[in-house]
Write the C-alpha cells for this entry.
Amino acid sequence: MIYNESVITLGENNKFLLKLFHSTVSPGQRIYREHHHTEIEISVFKSGKGIYTVGKKSYDFQKGDVFMFSSNEIHCITDISADEPFDLMNLHFEPRFVWSAGNNIFDLKYLKIFFERNEKFENRLDRNNPNTEKIRNLLYEIEKEFEEKQPEYELMIKVELLKILVTAIRGYDYVKKGPAFSAKTRSLISIEKAMNYIDNNLSSNITLEALALNANMSKTYFCTIFKKLNGISPWDYITIKRIEKSIEMLKTSQETVLEIALKCGFNNTANFNRAFKKVTGKVPGYYKLNK
C-alpha cells in the first residue's frame, strides 16, 4: 500500500518529476518479479527487515538502510520479516529533474553515481560509512519540506537532492574514474522536448525516426544521448510510460483491456500483454481485479 505521497510536477499535464511516498507490504515471502520504471530511486527503510533482490544479488535490509537504483534497474523485495512493521520511504525522480537545461546549477554530472558506476557499486549503501547517515537525514529533510510546504520548498527539495547526490559521489568509491559525460545545452533542450512530446502523445504512433528528426539528430546519436541522460533507451522509456498510463486506466476505467491497450499506443492485446508482463511482472487483469 502506498501512502503519504507528495509530488513535484511539470507543466499543465502534471507529469511528475519527483515523488516521495511511503509503502507498506504484508510480511512473508514474495515471488520475484521484474519491476521497471523510468525514474531513479533512493529509498530508506524507516522500519522492517527482509531481503531485497536486485538481479542475481540479494541484500538483507533493516531499519535505517538506504538503497539506490538507477533508471530501469530491476529490483524486488522478496522476503519480509514479521518481527516488526514495514515502512519504506521512497524518493523517485526523473533524471531530467537534475539535468534539465532550465535548472541552471543542476547538471548531468551529479548523476554519475547512477550512470557511471564502477565494479565496486552496491545498491545498499555501506551501513558503516558515516555518509549513509548523512544521506538518510537528507531524505528526512526532503520529507519535512513536503510536509511543511514553506515558501520555495520545491527549490529547497532540489537543493537537498543535490546534496544527496554529491555526498554519494564523494563518500563512496562507486564511480568510474575519468571525465564525466557532458552534453551541450542545445542537446538537453532537444531531448527534453522529445520527452515532453512522448509524454503527451503516448496513444499516438511514435517512431524513433520522427523523434530524432525533430531533435535534428541522427537516429543513432539521438538514442545515444537519450540513454546517457536518462539511463534508459528511448523505446524502453516509451514502453514503460505507456504501461504506467494503462495501469491508471485499468484501475479507474470500465473499458476493456483491448480498448485500454489501443488508447495507450499498442495495436493489439498480445503486444500489450507482453509489454505489460515485462514492465510490471504482472498481467493487466491483476489491476482490473484489484481496483
